[in-house]
Design goal:
- The complex is a heterotrimer of chains A (333), B (497) and C (337).
- With 333 residues, chain A is an all-alpha fold.
- Helix content of chain A is 74%, strand content 1%.
- Chain A has a single domain, classed as ABC transporter involved in vitamin B12 uptake, BtuC, CATH 1.10.3470.
- The radius of gyration of chain A is 20 Å and the shape is globular.
- Chain B has two domains: 232 residues, P-loop containing nucleotide triphosphate hydrolases (Rossmann fold); 240 residues, P-loop containing nucleotide triphosphate hydrolases (Rossmann fold, 3-Layer(aba) Sandwich).
- Chain B is built from 18 helices and 23 strands.
- In chain B, the strands form five sheets. In chain B, strands 15, 18, 19, 20, 21, 22 and 23 form a seven-stranded mixed β-sheet that branches. Chain B has a six-stranded mixed β-sheet with strand order 6-9-10-3-11-12, with helices on both faces. In chain B, strands 2-1-4-5 form a four-stranded antiparallel β-sheet, with helices on one face.
- In chain B, α4 crosses α5 and α5 runs parallel beside α6.
- Chain B is globular.
- By secondary structure, chain C is of the alpha/beta class.
- In chain C, the strands form two sheets. Chain C has a six-stranded parallel β-sheet, with helices on both faces. In chain C, strands 7-6-8-9-10-12 form a six-stranded mixed β-sheet, with helices on both faces.
- The chains are: A mainly alpha (333), B alpha/beta (497), C alpha/beta (337).
- Chains A and C meet through α1, α3, α10, α12 and α13 of A and α1, α3 and α4 of C.
Chain lengths: 333, 497, 337
């Protein structure tokens, strides 16, 4: 009974963190600029914050899988840049008389997800088959993906004709009954899928088992190498979707964009309660982590708080999140 | 009764090394069969052949009369041979159910099907019916985790369960509940191959035994027909005249005075005096706070109150660090060789000289050839069995690793030495050598504090003893005054009478 | 656990409040919601150029106390995705006018248009926007003209003969692309001068520019006589590389933008000349034009802030000093009060 309660509580922890951050911001706004209160907590700003969560959020879903399995993917930011370039290149070459058909958009989507999954596959194969540290492997592919992105994009932003997909990241959707932008819905659906995969499938079970104790997993007859590759490919595919949303957001493919984004993604996953030692983490937690980061950046801009303050506070929050995680473990040890 | 397992003339070669030289083993269903042998005798290799981790070079295995040749641990598991390793092999972040079904999940379209009833049945059998299958394994204590490993074997319908040193990290209480479980499994007709160094324990739980020495079977029979010393003799291959050799040593002036020390949670109150050349033993159940007390005095854990006098130096709570203690001539040999006591991936030489580095280095540079000379000297003196002192620690057996740990202390040459469970997980022959070493150290005028949960070794080795109960240390008495009854009385109640 | 959380809460609150007060922006002195609010969004926050622009904007803010003026750089330097988020958030938080220097000409088009739809007056400065039908005005240096002036200056430095190259800035920045074009069109008119295209760009910061320059110089140092760099980071990066290879002064360099390091290089002869914009005036105009728009005045669609070539000869003249060394720090600190 007590254990049940404990496990429920640890599931709720990211939510508590979210409410806590919102409460602190509310108090702060009331103290400093009460006139901004209705703006910050207005419906338009809610739509905006969710939309601003999408890219990091979807990336964080992929990263969650990798981090639970005890790995890390530093190539995420570069791969998002590469994906956006691939998307834009396919659109550009498939456009007829400056018009882009839905078929071409679908093709671009598939090509982007495939390209990013391929990078994931490279990460997975090198990590699993040759036993290299994922940190080093993905540090390498981070550079490689960036280089390929510049090569494919010919060192320039890839411009495309205007098309329907670009409206996937409008803060207010058209039609308005969608409430949130299509990108937000894609993120929600992917979160549910990843949550189900992690909790109810054999694959998900093995992700946790490999991260928790790789030797045990091997001893229990799990093909650790195969699953590691699958995990990185799955992560790559999700990062590919994030790349599509990055294209939708900016309307072009930018080979020098998304620099350092992998660190925001990793931070979101960590704030969401995952452990870099592996074995722990959840889809919902990571999305909430991404949401917390987006809320903070939005609040800082709304209140025009300077850059360095933002950086300090986000840093503190990451460390506090890790601290709470450690506290949780000491209680259960 | 028909035999369930028969190993016939099994040979195993690793290149030039002939690890198994024609081993025989017959196991019947519903028996606990003790497999006894010193480290390096070939027990692990034999069990790995049996579980499918290694393949025999020569010889046959019959399982229920049929030839059995597993190529992977999973094949062994499917054939009904389950192995429970000395190091726990559970995934701490997964739940009990997830661990038990790991690798053999039943699923439909990739979605896992729950098998809670099966898991629950297994937990009932193990007397842990109060546990929920949804509890995370990291929330369980070590004894219960061990039972989960057994549950895994039960759920997999194992016919033979191999237990490698199952009690090495268990308290007496957990050991007893493990024995109850073993008895239940025996009643179900499951055969258990029980590997252990604790001969008393082996005698208590097992029906028959097989002894391995140098890769060969050198004795088998009913345990009720032999005594513990007889087993020990067969093990070592020579007569063990004295398990606890005595080297004359003189007890001199007071060198360490510990006054009412108290740690953050343990110990609660501990005071004792230690004299030169004295071997002082501390007994207590696991969790009584013995290791914590040593760690507090040495400065590894924080001391909340109390005083420690080393020679003429006085240390107050809060002012003790391992560096200060080392400088004052106090050294500690940790109970945890694997993670704390030794740097496992580094060489024997590096480990031997680690704590005395500042003494041997020249302006921060380490003379590597000197380092090897020093390490070789100690390896020879302590008869550490190794190819070269440049090999990593991981190539050594438990007993030899412990010798390196002691060599580090001896090389640093402190006057007061704390030994925390110095013989845990090592074989009988090495144990005797360690007891002798401790006696010799005392004869050189060193003062020794030895913590153990194995009463006979304390009674055989120490001059004086005390018992710890829930963080409180009893007064120190001469070893002869501590009857077994008195020790157990204090160890379980905190009362001397 | 609860105790711990409470401590963290308290700590976070104090941090927020404490830092917040220190970082009080130009406009926070006014909490009156009837005051009209203007946000100025640069491309980055840690380059001298933007600080001078900030100074000009601050001067305008000091002179117009009845407006609230906020300086809001994007959270990641030079990152257009981050600038887009900043713009979206500012639009949501009720500003009446926003003056933005777009990092990318096309990526902000939709955001600017939707801000206008929400009733925000949009002004663009420094770099242009691909579609300008949603904006009130474009306040900037005539970058093409600046490039032209640099072309003539470099030709003069070389005696109208030799081989020249250019270290281009990152792709997609409209202002530098125009300078590059202006330079190119001019230099090609000189018959004695050969232009050689280098397939390497200077990147976002001095360090990248320096690395790129080293590579270029290693393979071309014997064949080139003059170099043009289209902004501050490429100019400084190239200067560092030239000094390192002891080619300073030997290869004539004409840069773009101005700061104290560039001034020193001009005085020492390492740098032949640079095109000085008037960033202070640009910041000042961004705010005053926004105010004029909010007051309902009609303003020109295009406002030029002017470019001057600075060389060793004219750097110490009085009128140059006015342009080159505005006391921006004074205005920033004054507006912070």
């Amino acid at each position: 009974m007590k254990e049940k309660l404990k496990s429920k509580l640890s599931l709720l922890l990211p939510f508590i963190g979210l409410l806590f951050v919102i409460a602190v911001i509310a108090v702060f706004i009331l103290l400093r600029s009460p006139d901004k209160f209705s703006i910050f907590f207005g419906s338009y700003n809610a739509q905006l914050i969710l939309k601003q969560t999408v890219i990091v959020g979807i990336g964080a879903l992929g990263m969650t899988l990798v981090i639970i399995s005890g790995g890390i993917d530093l190539s995420a930011g570069s791969v998002i840049a590469l994906g956006s370039v691939v998307f834009a290149t396919v659109l550009k070459s498939g456009a007829v008389d400056g018009a882009v058909s839905t078929g071409i958009i679908c093709l671009a989507f598939i090509a982007t997800v495939a390209a990013c999954s391929a990078v994931g596959g490279v990460n997975g194969v090198i990590t699993a088959k040759f036993g290299f540290m994922p940190f080093i492997v993905t540090l390498g592919t981070m550079q490689i993906a960036r280089g390929v992105a510049k090569w494919v994009g010919n060192n320039e932003r890839v411009r495309t004709p205007d098309n329907a997909f670009q409206s996937f990241m409008d803060p207010t959707p058209d039609p308005s009954w969608l409430i949130f932008s299509p990108g937000v819905w894609i993120m929600i659906i992917l979160t549910i899928i990843v949550a189900i995969v992690l909790k109810y499938t054999v694959f998900g079970r093995y992700v946790y088992a490999i991260g928790s104790n790789e030797d045990t997993a091997r001893l229990c007859g799990i093909n650790v190498e195969k699953y590691k590759i699958l995990i990185y490919v799955f992560c790559g595919a999700l990062i590919g979707v994030a790349a599509c949303m990055d294209y939708a957001n900016l309307g072009s493919g930018n080979p020098v964009g998304s620099i350092g984004l992998e660190l925001n993604i990793i931070a979101a996953v960590v704030i969401g309660g995952a452990s870099l030692n592996g074995g722990e983490g959840s889809a919902l937690g990571s999305i909430i982590g991404a949401l917390i980061m987006a809320i903070l950046v939005n609040a800082f801009t709304t209140l025009s708080i300077q850059q360095y303050v933002q950086e300090i506070i986000i840093g503190i929050i990451i460390i506090v999140a890790v601290g709470i995680d450690k506290l949780k473990h000491r209680k259960t040890a | 009764m028909a035999e369930i397992l028969h190993l016939q003339n099994i040979h195993k070669r690793f290149g030039p090394v002939h690890a198994l030289k024609g081993v025989e083993l017959i196991v019947y269903p519903g028996e606990v069969h003790a497999l006894i042998g010193e480290n390096g005798a070939g027990k692990s290799t034999m069990m790995k052949v049996l579980s499918g981790a290694h393949q025999a070079t020569e010889g046959d295995i019959l399982l229920e009369g049929k030839p059995y040749k597993p190529m992977t641990p999973n094949q062994g598991r499917n054939a009904g041979v389950a192995m429970i390793y000395q190091e726990l092999t559970l995934a701490p972040n997964l739940t009990i159910e997830e661990n038990i079904t790991l690798g053999v999940e039943k699923s439909k379209l990739g979605i896992v099907k729950h098998e809670k009833t099966k898991v629950k049945e297994a937990l009932d059998l193990l007397g842990k019916s109060h546990l929920s299958p949804d509890t995370k394994v990291m929330d369980l204590n070590i004894g219960t985790q061990q039972l989960i490993e057994i549950a895994r074997a039960i759920v997999a319908d194992a016919k033979i369960i191999i237990m490698d040193e199952p009690t090495s990290s268990l308290s007496r209480e957990d050991t007893e509940s493990l024995f109850k479980v073993i008895n239940k499994l025996r009643d179900r007709g499951i055969a258990i191959i029980y590997i252990s160094h604790f001969l008393e324990e082996v005698k208590e739980i097992s029906d028959r035994y097989t002894i391995l020495r140098d890769g060969m079977t050198c004795g088998t029979g009913m345990l009720k027909d032999v005594s513990v010393p007889q087993i020990a003799e067969m093990l070592v291959g020579r007569s063990l005249e004295n398990m606890y050799p005595h080297v004359p040593h003189e007890i001199g002036a007071k060198v360490l005075d510990v006054k009412k020390v108290r740690g953050i949670s343990l110990p609660k109150e501990a005071s004792f005096e230690l004299r030169q050349g004295e071997i002082f033993g501390i007994f207590g159940l696991v969790g009584a706070g013995r290791s914590e007390m040593l760690r507090c005095i040495f400065g590894l854990d924080q001391l909340v109150s109390g005083e420690v006098h080393i020679g003429n130096d006085k240390h107050h709570a809060g002012g003790i660090t391992p560096k200060k203690s080392l400088n004052a001539g106090l050294d500690l040999c940790s109970e945890d060789r694997k993670t704390e006591g030794l740097a496992q991936d580094m060489s024997i030489a590096v480990n031997t000289t680690l704590s005395a580095l500042s003494k041997e280095s020249n302006k921060g540079f380490i003379n590597l050839s000197d380092e090897k000379i020093i390490a070789d000297k100690w390896a020879e003196k302590l008869q550490t069995k190794c190819h070269s002192t440049l090999d990593p620690m991981t190539t050594l057996s438990g007993g030899n690793q412990q010798k390196v740990a002691i060599a580090r202390l001896m090389n640093h040459d402190s006057d007061i030495l704390f030994f925390d469970e110095p013989t845990r997980g090592i074989d009988v022959g090495s144990k005797a050598e360690i007891y002798k070493l401790i006696q010799e150290l005392a004869a050189q005028g060193k003062s020794i504090v030895m913590v153990s949960s194995y009463l006979p070794e304390l009674q055989g080795t120490c001059d004086t003893m005390a018992v710890m109960y829930r963080g409180v240390l009893s007064p120190k008495l001469d070893t002869s005054e501590w009857t077994k009854h008195k020790v157990m009385m204090y160890g379980t109640t905190g009362q001397l009478t | 656990m609860i105790k711990n959380l409470a401590i963290i809460a308290l700590a976070a609150l104090t941090t927020l409040t404490g830092c917040g007060d220190k970082s009080s922006q130009d406009g926070s002195k006014s909490k009156n919601s009837n005051v009209k609010k203007i946000a100025v969004v640069p491309k980055a926050y840690d380059v001298d150029f933007w600080k001078v622009v900030h100074g000009g904007a601050a001067k305008a803010a000091v002179e117009n106390k009845n407006y609230e003026v906020v300086w809001q750089p994007p959270s990641v330097n030079g990152d257009s995705s981050s600038q887009k988020s900043t713009l979206e958030t500012l639009t949501a938080s009720g500003y009446d006018a926003i003056a933005v220097a777009p990092i990318d000409a096309s990526e902000l088009v939709k955001t600017v248009a939707s801000a206008k739809k929400r009733g925000v007056k949009m002004l663009v400065w420094d770099s242009g926007l691909a579609k300008d039908d949603s904006i009130e005005t474009f306040i900037a240096t005539d970058n093409y003209q600046g490039g032209v002036l640099c072309g003539h200056a470099l030709a003069k430095a070389l005696g109208e003969k030799g081989t020249v190259i250019m270290l281009r800035y990152v792709e997609g920045s409209a202002s530098t692309t125009k300078r590059e074009q202006g330079f190119l069109d001019t230099i090609k008119k000189y018959e004695g001068i050969t232009y050689k295209e280098i397939n390497q760009r200077g990147g976002n910061d001095e360090a990248t520019a320096k690395t790129a320059s080293e590579t270029i110089l290693q393979s071309n140092k014997d064949s080139i006589d003059g170099i043009f760099c289209p902004n501050q980071t490429t100019t400084e990066g190239m200067l560092l590389a030239l000094k390192q290879l002891k080619l300073n002064g030997k290869i004539k360099l004409v840069g773009f933008d101005f700061n104290s390091a560039i001034a020193d290089a001009i005085k020492s002869g390492d740098l032949y000349g640079t095109a000085a914009q008037n960033p202070f005036r640009m910041g000042y105009l961004a705010v005053t034009k926004a105010i004029e728009t909010l007051e309902g005045k009609t303003i020109d669609k295009r406002v030029d802030t002017g470019v001057t070539i600075v060389t060793k000869e004219n750097i110490d003249s009085a009128e140059m000093k006015e342009i080159l060394f505005p006391n921006y720090e004074k205005w920033i600190s004054e507006s912070d009060k």
